[in-house]
Each structure stands twice: as C-alpha cells, then as structure tokens.
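Researcher: I'm preparing a figure for a lab meeting and need a structural model of a single chain. I don't have an experimental structure, so a prediction will have to do for now. The sequence is pasted below. Please return the structure as tokens so I can convert it later.
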Amino acid sequence: MSTDSPGRPVHETGVVWSLTLRDIVLLSLVAALVTVGTVLVHVPLHIPGKSGVVWIALLVVGRGLVRKPGAGLLMGLVAGVLVTLIGLGSESIFTWTRFASAGLVLDATTWAVGGDLTKPWAAALAGAAAHLAKLVTMTVVGLLLGLPATVMAVGLGLAATTHAVFGAVGGLLGALVLRELRRVPGLMDRP
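Model: Understood. Here is the structure written out token by token.
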C-alpha cells in the first residue's frame, strides 16, 4: 500500500466487488451529480467537449474519494444509464457507453499515475484521457450505427484537441476539490 501524503494510505487494493455500501452510495451520488451537471450546466461556448469541464471534474472527485479499482467504471455506468433513461442522449440507446468508457479509462489512468488524483498533473492527465475515451466511444458507436466515416472525420482533430483540453481542465478542477475535501475529517481517509 502506498501513501499519497504522510500517513494517508492510498486504497488501491481489491476490485469493484470490494466496494463498501458507503462507497456505492457515494459513487451513485456523484454519478447522479454527473447527470444533473450534464443537464443543468451549459457552458456558453460553441466548442466540442466543453461539458467535460463539469462532468469530468465530478468523475475525478468521485474516483478520488473512492480509491478502489472499478470505482470510475461504476460511476460511469450509473451516470450513463441515468443519462440514457432520462433521454439526454438522443443519439441512440448506446449513450451510456460514453460515460462507461470514460469511467473505465479514468480507472486505468488513475492506476497508471499512482492513484493520487489530488496531484494536479495526475488529475489533468486522467481527466484528459477519460474525456478522449468518451470521444473515441462516440466515434466507434457512430461507425457501428452506420454513420458515414467522412462526416465523422470532419473536425475530429479539433474535437480531440478540445476534448483533451476540457478534460484536463475538468481533472484540474477535480484535484482542487479533492484537496479541499481532504480537510473534511473522516471523508478521505476511510478504506
């Protein structure tokens, strides 16, 4: 077990099956906030990926609070199912895959950077990777549904760049929130 600061263990052991009831409730609440953030928060920019600033930040916060493998995937699945059921993803019934892939990549990237999402560089990298995973998933689903590849390829370079930037900004915001939540007694230091 490694530490993210003196005396604070990073709980990266176990699998998604080792989640406690507290973990599941916390992840479900954050997933619901991701859904609400997707609905209510509209950044007045006409740039692809701008919403990632909000929902990627929330995923990073949730994954930072529950430092167990599979936590990101569970949040992504719950958020994706909620978004799909509410009808926010009007493109197809596969809208849930965008959030699930972002959560999965968030888990993998968090593991790769050592598990500490309070470090700004680690959270920015994890946020950028998770948001790019959403873009890749959208592209793959579009191709599987028969959308013309030429239509999808137009602007994909710009979209990838903006998704990475907005995801990194969301990750940075998540790291800042996690640093403040670290001050709440009993919240971050529980297994």
